[in-house]
């Protein structure tokens, strides 16, 4: 397997000293308040980066697609542009951009360094204030061309919204092909926009529910390869795999703790019920967190590691519960009309995403961590399994229709739903963290 | 015992039970059934063979939605299975638990496991040695019927008793 993680280290960023950013009062600059209920997408003009032949246009295209899919930006069609940028380092003719209502403008260039690396730089301009908002340059090797564009999109997103971006991220998922009653399932990884798909398993065994470690180097998932379904760890770079724990029965529903030191999962009891255990990956010691004659599964840690949200049918049907990370204080938090499962704690800590079955539908929704404030973001005949973008603003899940599952993203307003392009059917997405 | 009442309210269930009564039911849709084994009729299987078990005894039972209770019709099937398994002790047995697609993945893995355990426990209660029995859950990963309505879902909510060969 080819490494894609190593080149991460070769991406370096530094602020461009060429234009001093004069401190200005915040109100003078264009900005998006993503906390408002109804955000009007910000009109933005993203010009082709100069140089690098087709690469300049490609970077601009990737940045444009990222910002557009976020739902927070309305990139202006290039055919409307009046000024043709010839020097991306010089101040543009702001009036030419104001007249087409571009509140923000992106210019940039790309070139090849003597050592073979690519250098990409961008400037973000506030057209109405008539000044530069930010400018940075990045270096990357050839294999990371798309990453540079995503990093630039993240920088623009962060400057304009005040929130961390999420475009320089990846998704692990299950690639599905073949007939429904003989599905071939392969572990796969791709960029968050569907590019650069790589397969991490050969499809001979059923594999399910992959999840990233906090450092993005490992995946924990479930596989039938040994006959009995069990939880495994996979080092993405080396392809090295290992069984997590040595339990007699099925282990499933794994997730990492926020510090990456533990895997929390369900273990099948001999009586057919399932309880939640945490295993310390260094000491290999296991801790039982639940001990009920019920199905306890789908555990997910809070980002500070102090709590765990999970599904249990101990009350009759599946509902969402929260407990301390030591198993203390197990409390039901979902009380709506329906069956709740697949809870996932937001990386911001403020919300829990879930799948709810009610009235013959499957819904993706969020609730506060005490169960209040439930909001349904998406409804459909068959859809499940939300995963959070690392900034806690967007969810991805899978929806089964037209013969198989496909990935879909939706933002927290529920109004911006986007298909994630995949070659085959795809399910069980898990979003990577951002690399700090 | 409200299960019988529930059953009679559900015409699909009745149809299914009726089909079950005929050995080798749903042969068009179930890959483990007589038709797929290349048999022309129920009587063709050698007594004590895996075919005999599948065709003449019935290798699977069905469950209500989100339930792992052994229904009355399933008890009849399992009792028949137990009698056969007690007669032909050379077989090791794996009970597969399955769920329909109308549940989320991890919950359905757990539900399939619970169904397999319920079927296993019933067989043990009828005298099958627990040392011969293993269970495995496939959740909703291995449907036998693939349409998008209740007639398929009810066939997929199942526990299948499979014979894993002589010895063990």
Automatic annotation (TrEMBL), chain B:
Membrane topology qualifier: Lipid-anchor
Main location: membrane
Signal peptide range in chain numbering: 1-23
Top-level taxon: Bacteria
Domain OmpA-like: 50-167
Keywords, ordered alphabetically: Cell cycle, Cell division, Cell outer membrane, Lipoprotein, Membrane, Palmitate, Signal
A Pfam family recorded for this sequence: OmpA
Gene3D superfamilies tied to this protein: OmpA-like domain (3.30.1330.60)
UniProt subcellular location: Cell outer membrane
InterPro entries registered for this protein in UniProt: Bact_OuterMem_StrucFunc, OMP_bac, OmpA-like, OMPA-like_CS, OmpA-like_sf, Pal, Pal_lipo_C
Physiological role: Part of the Tol-Pal system, which plays a role in outer membrane invagination during cell division and is important for maintaining outer membrane integrity.
Annotated family: Belongs to the Pal lipoprotein family.
Quaternary structure (record): The Tol-Pal system is composed of five core proteins: the inner membrane proteins TolA, TolQ and TolR, the periplasmic protein TolB and the outer membrane protein Pal. They form a network linking the inner and outer membranes and the peptidoglycan layer.
Name of the molecule in the record: Peptidoglycan-associated lipoprotein
């Amino acid at each position: 397997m080819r490494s894609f993680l190593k080149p991460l280290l070769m991406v370096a960023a530094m602020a461009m000293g060429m234009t001093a950013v004069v401190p200005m009062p915040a109100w003078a600059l264009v900005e998006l308040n993503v906390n408002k209920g109804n955000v009007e997408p910000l009109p933005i003009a993203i010009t082709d980066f100069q140089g690098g032949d087709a690469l300049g246009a490609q970077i601009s295209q990737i940045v444009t697609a990222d910002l557009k899919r976020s739902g927070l930006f309305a990139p202006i069609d290039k055919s409307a542009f009046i000024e043709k940028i010839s020097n991306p380092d010089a101040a543009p003719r702001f009036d030419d951009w104001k007249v087409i209502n571009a509140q923000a403008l992106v210019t940039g260039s790309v070139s090849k360094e003597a050592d073979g690396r690519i250098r990409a730089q961008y400037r973000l301009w506030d057209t109405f204030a008539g000044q530069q908002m930010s400018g940075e340059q990045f270096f990357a090797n050839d294999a990371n061309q798309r990453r540079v564009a995503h990093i630039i999109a993240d920088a623009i997103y962060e400057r304009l919204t005040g929130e961390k971006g999420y475009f320089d991220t990846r998704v692990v998922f299950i690639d599905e092909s073949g007939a429904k009653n003989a599905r071939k399932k392969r572990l796969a990884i791709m960029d968050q926009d569907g590019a650069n798909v790589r397969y991490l398993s050969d499809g001979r065994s059923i594999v399910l529910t992959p999840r990233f470690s906090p450092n993005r180097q490992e995946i924990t998932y479930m596989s039938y390869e040994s006959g009995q379904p069990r939880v495994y760890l996979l080092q993405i770079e080396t392809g090295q795999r290992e069984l997590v724990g040595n339990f007699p029965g099925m282990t499933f529903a794994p997730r990492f703790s926020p510090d990456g030191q533990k895997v929390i999962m369900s273990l099948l009891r001999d009586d057919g019920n399932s309880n939640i255990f945490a295993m310390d990956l260094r000491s290999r010691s296991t801790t039982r967190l639940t001990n009920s004659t019920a199905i306890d599964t789908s555990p997910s840690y809070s980002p500070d590691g102090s709590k765990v949200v999970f599904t249990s049918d101990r009350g009759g049907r599946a509902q969402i519960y929260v407990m301390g990370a030591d198993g203390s204080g197990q409390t039901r938090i979902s009380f709506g009309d329906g069956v709740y499962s697949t809870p996932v704690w937001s990386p911001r800590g403020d919300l829990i995403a879930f799948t709810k079955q009610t009235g013959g539908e499957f819904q993706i929704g969020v609730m506060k961590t005490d169960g209040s404030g439930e909001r349904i973001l998406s409804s459909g005949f068959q859809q499940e399994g939300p995963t959070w973008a690392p900034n806690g603003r967007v969810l991805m899940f899978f929806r089964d229709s037209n013969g198989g599952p496909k990935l879909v993203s939706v933002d927290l307003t529920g109004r911006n739903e986007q298909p994630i392009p995949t070659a085959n059917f795809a399910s069980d997405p898990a979003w990577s963290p951002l690399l700090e | 015992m409200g299960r019988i009442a529930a059953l009679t309210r559900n015409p699909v269930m009745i149809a299914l039970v009726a089909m079950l009564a005929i050995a080798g039911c749903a042969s068009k849709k179930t890959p483990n059934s007589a038709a797929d084994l290349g048999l022309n009729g129920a009587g063709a299987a050698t007594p004590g063979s895996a075919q005999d078990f599948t065709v003449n005894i019935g290798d699977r039972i069905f469950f209500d939605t989100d339930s792992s209770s052994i229904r009355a019709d399933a008890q009849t099937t399992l009792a028949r299975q137990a009698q056969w398994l007690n007669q032909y002790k050379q077989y090791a047995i794996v009970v597969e638990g399955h769920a329909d697609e109308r549940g989320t993945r991890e919950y359905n893995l757990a539900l399939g496991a619970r169904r397999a355990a319920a079927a296993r426990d019933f067989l043990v209660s009828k005298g099958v040695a627990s040392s011969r029995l293993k269970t495995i859950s496939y959740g909703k990963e291995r449907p036998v019927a693939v349409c998008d309505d209740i007639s398929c879902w009810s066939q997929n909510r199942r526990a299948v008793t499979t014979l894993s060969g002589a010895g063990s």
